[in-house]
Write a structure and sequence with these properties.
Layout (H helix, E strand, L loop, with lengths): L5 E5 L22 H13 L4 E4 L11 H4 L4 H11 L4 E7 L5 H14 L4 E6 L17 H19 L7 E4 L4 E3 L9 E2 L4 E2 L14 E4 L4 H10 L2 E4 L4 H14 L11 E11 L2 H13 L7 H8 L22 H13 L4 H11 L3 E6 H13 L5 E4 L6 H16 L12 H5 L10 H6 L1
Parallel strand pairs: 1-2, 1-13, 2-3, 3-4, 4-9, 9-10, 10-11, 11-12, 11-13
Antiparallel strand pairs: 5-6, 7-8
Helix pairs in contact: 1-3, 3-4, 4-5, 5-6, 6-7, 9-11, 12-13
Bound molecules: flavin mononucleotide (FMN).
């Protein structure tokens, strides 16, 4: 069968564009369950692989509205799970500000509730502002990833504590659980001591899907070792090919094959019936942040307060901060390549919060996505609509049918679980070295 694109929806209730909520007819809340359900159903009608809910752990009233005010993702996705049937449900939970037992339970629960559609985006939480809400210091970048590696291993180990046939529930014999098929984890590491087992039977997907979005060396290494889907941050084709190859080329080191990981760059499509119409739409969106109201979004991405800089001056020398290596590197290299002023960089960053903006007629957007997909830059895309509902409708109603027509994207779901959509097998139970020694 012809290779198919994978499409995710990066869900922000007020749209990805920082000023998109100001657009006439745009949704203005990310706290309204009915808005979220409408968007989720639209994504499912368009046969997307998954909806992805990011998360952050602090409130910045000058930030992007959907980042400042949002429902807790797992609570929200449990509601979305019962209102949808097929679409995958991904949520962010931090490895810096959570504990593995709770995370393992939460995603195993979501996988049961959704009948096999849960995915966990394991993030290290780049933004240090969260630490004041947890009473702990924000560890440095390297330490965050060290902890993340152990965290993910513990979660996965907990998901495998129960054999698939451990719950017998035999009324005749009175045996409910076969104790031979239950395997404590007995993990003792640098960061965590977790005995297990988890108090929930093996998830429908065996292992819920793992998402990863870090673009630093440590982020890519973690993704190559553990992730099923990688979100990449890119601004142009050549860069996307490099990011794609970095992930795929790292896989053999961990005994994995290229098809084991789906790489989907983030993109904010702005689509019109003609190129002209699309560029006019983008110009209107950009007018909402023209006065510098999105400067905090720029500062957040670079991990440095940029409000004191002259927007019409050159882009200052900015160090790779301890925050997001990927965004800083990608945005700065584009700014240098294209000789941007700080205002140009500002406009680029606040549009899609540092992600790629693709603007044009439906045909030209489909052509570009196809080109990337067929030439080593992507296995699909993480779609970040500028606004809801219109920005997303433009994509699903104008671009998706072209992709389907060209045989590049499914017309219907062929399976029921997120693993089915991604073409990933349900993994058998794996035993850790400690468990093997104990048995
Ligand atoms: C598509 C995408 C989604 C992300 N979602 C979140 C998120 O929900 N919460 C968060 O704290 N970080 C999020 N991040 C940030 C990354 O997970 C990572 O922490 C950050 O990029 C810094 O890692 P790096 O230095 O390895 O790039 C996201 C990044 C991307 C590209």
């Amino acid at each position: 069968m012809k290779r198919q694109m994978h499409l995710g929806l990066f869900l922000l209730g007020t749209g990805s564009h920082t000023g998109g909520w100001r657009h006439p007819g745009a949704t203005r809340s990310f706290q309204d369950i009915d808005t979220v359900l409408e968007i989720a159903r639209a994504a499912e009608d368009a046969k997307f692989d998954l909806i992805f809910m990011g998360d952050n752990l602090n409130a910045d009233p000058k930030g992007h509205p959907s980042f400042t005010l949002r429902l807790e993702p797992l609570t929200l996705l449990a509601a979305v799970a019962v209102a949808t049937k097929k679409i995958g449900l991904g949520a962010t939970v931090s490895t810096t500000f959570s504990d593995p037992f709770t995370v393992a339970r939460a995603f195993a629960s979501l996988d049961h509730i959704s009948h096999g559609r849960a995915a966990w985006n394991a993030v290290t939480t780049a933004n240090a502002s969260a630490s004041v809400n947890f009473g702990i210091d924000h560890p440095d970048h390297a330490r965050r990833y060290e902890r993340a590696g152990e965290f993910v291993d513990v979660v996965r180990g907990l998901w495998d504590c129960w054999d698939d046939d451990a719950i017998v529930a035999d009324a005749a014999t009175g045996l409910y659980i076969d104790p031979q098929k239950l395997h404590p984890l007995n993990h003792e590491g640098t960061f965590f001591k977790v005995r297990g087992p988890i108090n929930i039977g093996r998830a429908p997907q065996g292992q819920p899907v793992l998402l990863q979005a870090g673009g630093s060396e440590a982020g890519i290494a973690l993704a190559a070792r553990t992730a099923d889907v990688v979100f990449s941050v890119v601004q142009d084709f050549d860069e996307a090919c490099v990011a794609y190859a970095q992930v795929k080329d790292s896989l053999p080191r961990y005994g994995r094959r290229p098809d084991d990981v789906t790489v989907i760059p983030g993109v904010m499509p702005v689509v019109g019936r003609t190129d002209r119409e699309a560029f006019d739409k983008l110009a209107v969106l950009q007018s909402y942040t023209a006065g510098g109201s999105g400067i905090n979004v720029l500062s957040e991405r670079f991990g440095i307060d940029l409000s004191a800089y002259d927007l019409d001056g050159p882009v200052p020398e900015l160090p790779l901060s301890d925050h997001y290596h990927s965004f800083t590197r990608v945005l700065l290299s584009k700014a240098r390549r294209e000789n941007m002023t700080l205002r140009d960089l500002y406009h680029l960053t606040v549009a899609a919060r540092g992600h790629w903006v693709l603007c044009g007629s439906a045909e030209s957007v489909a052509d570009t996505l196809q080109h990337w997909f067929e030439n080593g830059a992507a296995d699909g895309f993480n779609i970040m609509p500028a606004t809801h509902p219109h920005g997303f409708d433009d994509f699903t109603q104008m671009v998706v049918p072209i992709l389907q027509e060209r045989g590049l994207f499914r017309r219907d779901y062929e399976g029921d679980t997120l693993r089915d959509h991604l073409g990933l097998a349900r993994p058998p139970v794996a035993r850790t070295a400690t468990q093997r020694k104990a048995s």
